[in-house]
Amino acid sequence: MTMSITIVMVARIIITLVVVVVILLPLVVALLFFFFTLAVIITTILAMLPFLPLPPPPPPPLCPHDQHQHRTYYKRWKAGASRAWSPKEWLTAQSRSLAKNSRGYQLEASSSWRSKTVNMGDADAPPFDPEERFLEISAASLEERLKVVQLVLEDLTSRAEADSQKLRLLVPTELFGSVMGHRGETLRNIIQTSRAQVWPPLWFQAPRGISVTPWEEARELEALKLVFGMLTQLGNQPEAPPVPPLPSKLGVRRPSTLGAIGSNMPLKIPVDIEIPPTADRSFTFPTDQTMDHVDNVEHMGPAAFDQLDYRDLLRSLTLGSTDYGETVRSISFDMPAGRGYGQIPPAPRLHRFHVRGKAEIFAEDGRSFTKKQKGRLSLVSEDRVHKKGVERYQVSFFSGELSRADGVGIIFSSHLPKNSDIQQIVSVFLNRTGRLCSRVNQRVIRIASTLPQIELGDVIEVENDIDMRCATFTIWSASGAAPATTVVSYVQVAEQLTATPGQSIPGHLAVVVKNPGVSVAFLS
């Protein structure tokens, strides 16, 4: 009996093993084959990723109260297309068509996209087409937007435009002051350099169908009118005189001789220009206000398009996104071809290096140089001495291997240095490590204030207030970090150079470079 039970149990075990082997083993093999095939597919895809086209980026979010979170996009119109370009990350193209009608141009948007990556070098030479007539710059951080405006103007004013009478530059912005900069200094300098003519926004003259949302409305509009009034007055003068400052109650800093490229002190006047959602979709800008002519075609208002459905206009201002809200804000001005085109008019605000010595290679315009020889330090100064007022500089180390000895500072002297011996100068300077120091010949004194270490691509801003005997050093990081600034008083240094109390001390900017291959450029 016991033997029979044992035989039965062994038989059951054998049958169970046979069933497991016959049924489960193929399933396990199938699973192993599946995972192996999946691994091969994933590996192949990863190997092909560098050769696949990159998808277009999503449109940047618009936050009117935080302008530093935006990216810079250009829109460029020509015969039948407009392209949007981010100089730091993306070149995004969107097909559009311009259909000419009896009253002007009408913008028609489509949804076809293509994209490719661009590097930082491309941002220094935008591929603007000479045939293009309209340029739109959408929401971006202050630094990026002003850089875009500067690049655009340098490109437009450097080529001959014999056939066109005007070019219209349209600058939509979520904060009017972000483009205006220090009390409008940026736009004033644009006008002075390009001989542009400013047109006030349409809503100041004919706000039909457009309303201003309440936010201390009277004060903000008054500030805008003051700015445009000064710009208009400036444009009517044969030689641009100093523009009177805005009232101090507006909370903006005093103007200087330089524009606000790279500044974080814009005119902080948030004014929302709102098109009511209930407005008629056939709304068109009035044809009897703020008219101008581009290529013998009439355009009006800041939109520069007639008979334009306002919702299409909103889409065109926001790269096809509806997340921006139904608001339109813009500045526009015309650039006449016959007054300065073909060459950049001389501008006293442009700084240049003093071309001297054989250890450096200077650009033809004197605004940049590269050290080419090993050996002693190179001391390269600007080409002129300043004796009064406020002078603001911006320089950048853009290539090479920086050393601890590299730096930027102000040399106090009534003449430019005759050699590169730094032990024969009196100066206040910022070295590569972020240390601020004063030098009187061979004696160097460290100042308690420090700034971040200077890296390639950083913008070093130096503002020398000769009358107040102080210098302000600011570093705008290429990484996008918040700018760092400090003010240095050189009263004690000045007292060693003059016996007259309160006398201004002449000075000029200078750059020190050690390693060959290091390149430096003026951005101001």
TrEMBL record:
Signal peptide positions on this chain: none
InterPro entries named among the record's database cross-references: KH_dom_type_1, KH_dom_type_1_sf
Residue ranges annotated for the K Homology domain, each copy included: 167-200
Transmembrane segment boundaries: 32-52
Magnesium found in the keyword field: no
Gene3D superfamilies the UniProt entry points to: 3.30.310.210
Entry keyword annotation includes RNA-binding: yes
Domain of life from the UniProt record: Eukaryota
GO molecular function list: RNA binding
Keywords in alphabetical order: Membrane, RNA-binding, Transmembrane, Transmembrane helix
Pfam families: KH_1
Annotated protein name in UniProt: K Homology domain-containing protein
